[in-house]
Design the sequence.
């Protein structure tokens, strides 16, 4: 089983259409089973999506209509056009940069989504507050595992501290962890190089970093420069590992590698992706 996570940056990216093509081409080459995406947006003022873009969508309760430039919908549509069965779900979380409906998404290639789990993790629950955070998870046919796409806040954010968001997430997943395997995939906004903060906090709560478990792996770095939200937190231009795939239990990880980084595949976002290959039980 292959799992992929990427903070997409979506429509905020320059040369978006080209990067959309590169992203879909990379997926077609690697064929991950599950894809977790963050910063998945659409233009709030765009026209409503037509029926072909809706196909394969697992519907969840939301007041935000699907627009024709929705990033997750367009990726899923292109995969279906290429002959890849794709079931997908998008959760709008907040208004981004004053003009986007921004959220998180999960794409399942080859298996239908059978259940979804949605819950807020931030103090703020205001669609127009850019700090608002929510989590989306799914189960797919033939599996009991839960797959979550995560976009956390920063450790030192006074208004929305990581520790509080993590406590809500832990409590919300506590029952699932007791009986099923749970995967957390996404942008955790916490470098593993900073001692005593987000990364170590996650490991202290019993989560397994699949990168550390991988028999074959690369450098693991998913950001090559200072990006939005890190200008005042890091004074140097050091690369960071901000994007992870954590598992609730030990599992055999064949490989973990950074993708869409300009080397393995063209870069499509200000983050790079993480792709892991897991030996199924």
Sequence:
């Amino acid at each position: 089983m292959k799992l992929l996570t990427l903070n997409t940056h979506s429509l905020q990216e320059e040369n978006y259409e080209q990067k959309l093509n590169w992203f879909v081409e990379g997926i077609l080459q690697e064929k991950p089973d599950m894809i977790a995406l963050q910063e998945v947006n659409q233009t709030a003022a765009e026209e409503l999506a037509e029926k072909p873009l809706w196909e394969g969508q697992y519907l969840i309760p939301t007041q935000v209509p699907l627009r024709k430039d929705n990033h997750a919908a367009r990726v899923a549509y292109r995969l279906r056009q290429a002959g890849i069965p794709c079931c997908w779900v998008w959760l709008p979380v907040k208004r981004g940069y004053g003009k986007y409906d921004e959220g998180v998404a999960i794409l399942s290639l080859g298996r239908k989504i059978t259940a979804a789990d949605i819950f807020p993790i931030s103090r703020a629950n205001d669609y127009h507050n850019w700090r608002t955070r929510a989590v989306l998870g799914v189960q797919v046919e033939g599996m009991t595992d839960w797959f979550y796409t995560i976009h956390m806040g920063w450790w030192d954010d006074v208004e929305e501290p990581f520790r509080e968001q993590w406590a809500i997430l832990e409590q919300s997943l506590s029952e699932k962890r007791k009986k099923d395997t749970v995967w957390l995939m996404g942008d955790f906004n916490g470098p593993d190089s900073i001692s005593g903060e987000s990364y170590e906090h996650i490991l202290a709560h019993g989560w397994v970093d699949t990168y550390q478990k991988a028999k074959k792996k690369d450098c693991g770095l998913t950001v090559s420069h200072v990006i939005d939200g890190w200008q005042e937190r890091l004074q140097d231009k050091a690369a960071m590992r901000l994007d992870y795939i954590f598992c609730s239990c030990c599992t055999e990880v064949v490989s973990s590698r950074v993708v869409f980084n300009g080397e393995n595949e063209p870069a499509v976002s200000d983050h790079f992706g993480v792709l892991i290959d897991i030996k199924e039980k």
